[in-house]
Amino acid sequence: MGNYHLFAYAENRRIRPFGVEYNRQLPVGLFGAEFDYTGEVLPVLLLNEPAKYGTDSRALTTARQEQYGAGISPTGFRLIWRKRGQFQPYWNAKGGFTYFKNRVLSTEGTHLNFTCEFSVGVEKALTPRLGFRAGYSDFHISNGNIARKNPGIDFMYFNAGINYRWGKH
Q1: What would the DSSP string read from start to end of the chain?
Q2: pLDDT single digits (tens) 59-69
Q3: For position 5, what pLDDT does the model report?
Q4: What is the per-residue pLDDT for 6?
Q5: Does domain 3-164 have CATH number 3.10.270.10?
Q6: Low-confidence residues of the chain, pLDDT below 70?
Q7: What's the pLDDT score for residue 11?
């Protein structure tokens, strides 16, 4: 999962997020779709970046390091079309924050960063309780200008997950 320049200018980073997402159907629809609240917890967020970099986030060496972080995206929503059992296209938007053990993206960056994620994909029920989904995400991380430097970073990546439905069906 590499990064690109859309809203941010940091480069030469890769991210591996591992988490759990929660979706709850709301009693309204939008654009002919089911409208869901969504939130996510990322207990493991691994950021691979240059071992040494300047205040402008540019690499000063070819050596690499892993930065450990965690995050939460408590605000989000999802639009999902079609009936369960069929392939269901979806669009998802989430916002939240991450916290890294060390400063990331710049030597004058922060431990705390804000996130915004947009994804599109398809979901398919395999059993009444179990499902699978695959999609494509744009994941943005930046400190929102709470520090002297705010290089920010944008990641585009494919994602996949197993869904488990709790409660009645």
Answers
A1: --EE-SS----S-EEEEEEEEEEEEEEEEETTEEEEEEEEEEEEEEEEEESSB-TT--BSSS-EEEEEEEEEEEEEEEEE-S-BTB-EEEEEEEEEEEEESS--SSTT--SEEEEEEEEEEEEEESSSSEEEEEEEEEEEEE-TTSSS----EEEEEEEEEEEE--S--
A2: 899 999 999 99
A3: 53
A4: 58
A5: no
A6: 1-9, 167-169
A7: 78
